[in-house]
Amino acid sequence: MTQAVIAGYVRSPFTLARKGALAKIRPDDLAATVVRGLVDQSGIDPKTIEDLILGCAFPEGEQGLNVARLITFLAGLPRSVGGVTVNRFCGSSMQAIHQAAGAIAIGAGDVFICAGVESMTRVPMMGFNPMPNPQLYKTMPEAYIGMGDTAENVAAKWNLSRADQEAFAVESHKKADSAQKAGKFTDEIIAIDTPDGTVTDDGCIRPDTTAEGLADLKPAFRADGVVTAGTSSPLTDGASAVLVCSEDFAKKNGLTPLARIKSVAIDGCLPEIMGIGPIGASKKALKRAGITASDLDIVELNEAFSSQAMVSIRELGLDPKIVNIDGGAIALGHPLGATGARIVGKAASLLKREGGKYALASQCIGGGQGIATILEAM
Amino acid sequence: MSDMNTGIKQVAVIGAGVMGAGIAAHIANSGTPVLLLDIVPDGASDRNVIATSAVAKLQKADPAPFMNKRAANLITCGNIEDDLGKITECDWIIEAVIERLDIKQALYKKIGAVRKSGSVVSSNTSTIPLATLIDGMETGFARDFIITHFFNPPRYMRLLELVASPATRDGVIDKITQFADHRLGKTCITCHDKPGFIANRLGVYWIQAAMTEAMDRHLTVEEADSVIGRPFGIPKTGVFGLMDLVGLDLMPHVQASMAGALPKSDPFHAIYRESDLVKNLIADGYTGRKGKGGFYRLNRSGGEKVKESVNLATGDFAKSQKARLESVRAAGKNPHSLMNFPDKGGEYGRAVMGKTLGYAAFIAEEAATAIPDVDEAMKLGYNWKTGPFELIDAIGVDALIAMLTADGIDIPPLLQKAAGKSFYKVTDGKLFCLGFDGDYAEVIRPDGVLLLEDIKRRSEPVAGNRSASLWDIGDGVACLEFHTKMNALDADVMAMLKTSIRTVKKQFKAMVVYNEGSNFSAGANLGLALFAANIAVWPEIENLIETGQATYKALKYAPFPVVGAPSGLALGGGCEVLLHCDAVQAHAETYVGLVEPGVGLIPAWGGCKEMIRRWSENPKFPKGPMAASAKAFEIISVATVAKSAFEAKEHLFFRPDDGITMNRNRLLQDAKTRALAMVEGYEAPTEITYRLPGETARVAFEMAVDGFWRLGKATDYDRVVAGELARTLAGGDTDITQELSEDDMLELEREGFMRLVRNPGTLARVEHMLLTGKPLRN
Lengths: 378, 778
What we know:
Order of helices and strands of chain A: EEHEHEHEHHHEEHEHEHEHHHEE
Largest sheet of chain A: 10 strands, mixed
Number of strands of chain A: 12
Helix content of chain B: 40-55%
Number of strands of chain B: 24
Number of helices of chain B: 33
Number of helices of chain A: 12
Shape of chain B: globular
Distance between the termini of chain A: 17 Å
Largest interface: A-B, 20 and 20 residues
Oligomer: heterodimer
CATH class of the largest domain in chain B: Mainly Alpha
């Protein structure tokens, strides 16, 4: 079997939806800039790329019409490069990486760009035309449950206090802020030109976040709830891209791989507690890699909400010190389709930067799923 | 908007206090860029901080100083030290700084040095005479200088008093009047350079008289306000409620400045008295509604809100007691019978209003150029329904003279001139008013002002019943007027609408729907609906809905143009009338919404179908089977009310190309012009069909409402009402492959309405609304 490696990772700045600096940028343009940035930075010959696999959670409007193919045009890639848009909600661009790894394994190509994009400004969550199946809603209303409600359910079931969730959020902002100040995002960010100037920095991080400040917020989803806007990832605009290729190709073309894709997994769970998705998926992936949680050196775990991230860390027995060391989505933001590629790319580059053998990237997915990727240092 | 070239393209306001900032906001409402400057506070890091924080405050204020969010972008904030040079771009510079002559004149010198030639400079002073302001200023400056006195809040108060000096060059007053009239919607009244101009001169006297007399005659504040309210066509806040509204702390300054400025011979001095009670209230923080209360306060100490009022003798607060004066009950709206009723209410009313009206006659010639200006000033500056001279006519000139004589008050010469006559009279359908010379002169409206009031004086309605009338407003245009209480819609309005369609088809070219009440229409007559529901005459109710639907549809497809011309509230059925007009020409101060869910109902006179149509036809809105219905659901389910005509366009209650008139008095003429412009080649709209998603949309909308319900933002019964609205806007049981006609949509509206009206939850809401005027959150 041909082994797939992560040979490059970039992303756009992540900025708040509507209020943020990327609100006026079309998502196809945003993703194209990031994809072009990856190609230029890696120095590969674009003609060698088999396909652009692009994750997007609400592929309609400016993200519609098989936007992946359109992005190849916008990014100036040769016509020979394909484009496919994949949707697994929040797991979309991690799914893109899995598909590339699978394709490489069966010899269906050597080089793939696995990207993700979401403008939560320009295409609203749920899309423009949410049309639930009335019959399914009647028999299984949780199939359409709102994400905030799942966060409340997880908090209730695992007995998480509001204060603990807020402490987790404060920590996420603190880590992201230090990383930003130390210039640790500079290498991964592709600057984006906008009508109001060039955007080079993340816009969601709030360094002044305090436990007291968060304690004043009103519950965001239930009148008597414990989840607030402060313990949820913000609506975000952003794009990310990862270069996935075969180990042989990397060697022959002088690329320096960041990490090898060791194993991947998908695992379904109850939709009403979708936030625990990473637990099952990560366990499967660890087993497939033949390692245990204690073998991990780096973990990138998407923080859709404090509650689900905390439960996942606890149930997987992860060492909090190795999780999201540059901050998580509560601070950085969560442009749905772009997050998966960000955390896999980030985990791979952290393995390189921090040293260590194994990294895990995992996230929960609306509708009740988890997705996980194990990386191995090279 | 009645637009015209006034030569004023940019304005500067200097002084970002309450008045200056409010004036700047309203100039921005007119679409005109404004520069707002204030001083640089000591040690400020942001040198524009006063202006920027004033604008930030404006954006949060309620009632809103801005007519739409975008207006705020037209204000450029700055400071006098760095940015005064920018006034070279400005055609009108308004000074609204502290009332100190030295500061104002120093500023004028700076302005004089940089302003462009021909620009107008005006002061918003309310206490310093114009002659004093320009004393020692160079001639060139004085030529371009006037007083423009706005009332607070500048967006909402329609009066603008203007004062020119003998040095003012020709054209300055005209230029500002044109702009303020057309673009700011103000009624401009030119006053003489006398203290308090017109409105405050009389208003301050009136307030002082009402306070002094109430204290001397031992009335409670409730009793005083009940007398000096409704019987005289004055807002029910009366005097003490009014002082709470404007702020108690303002009054001593204004009264003292008036006492200082008026000559000793002025009758004001006879009633002027500093009040220890008011001083103590202010010292204790009772500065009015902006503070912890004033003459009235809400006591929340016991956990619930208790309305309390101050005892004028002791200064102690006690639970507010409703006034029960026989005189007020017996007089109703008749000032003459109130003033002659032998109880303390009658005597108080006579003492206060007798003196006040006498003072109006005393000051009129000195302060104003004509009597109607005094009436307009009090109507627009103090919200009196009738001006002082109109009130004198209602009481009777001779009757008032007799009362004043009996009370030992000198009869002012102007009142003597009117003896045996009245101030106003109608001859041959024309309105005349007594001049200061003792001769009557016709009251002439400015060009472009057309009032139904005048048409009614000179003609009979073309058709009419007790709820609505059709008038001929000339040039082949008819005007349909509602005239019920709050212009609520009932079966007679519907009947008159049908008659009007028939009549206009035969005898006119176009129709305008307009009235001169405070409100265009507050919606369907809920009292009648509740009565019908209580005796369970469901077919009657369904019939009223069906008739309304058929009538509005006939209006929409009538073979002539129909222009809706609303002002004030246009809610529920009142909004639905407008949704069926070919075009709308709205007064900027129009408050529009489909508020039926507030009383547990859904729009059923075509409101749902028209909102879907408007959103689906809007080229700037995303397409798809759900989008238009979802937007309509978002707007209607929470009973969204647009708080200006500009906001109404954002919600598509009005179309993007519908017209907005800033000046209320110009609305009918603008609407008529618009209607006439549509006559040539007019074709009625063609019926459209709807393709709606059906049950899936209902489910999606209900999911959204359930989210709000879990958050505690929607009540149990909100879910029921929203469920019916969801079903209607979804197209019922339709499928995306099917087409629905307008009649199918109307049937869905009707079915949903009828299910709700039979529900006790809806009846409880209707009853609560009728009793309290507020929505019930069941």
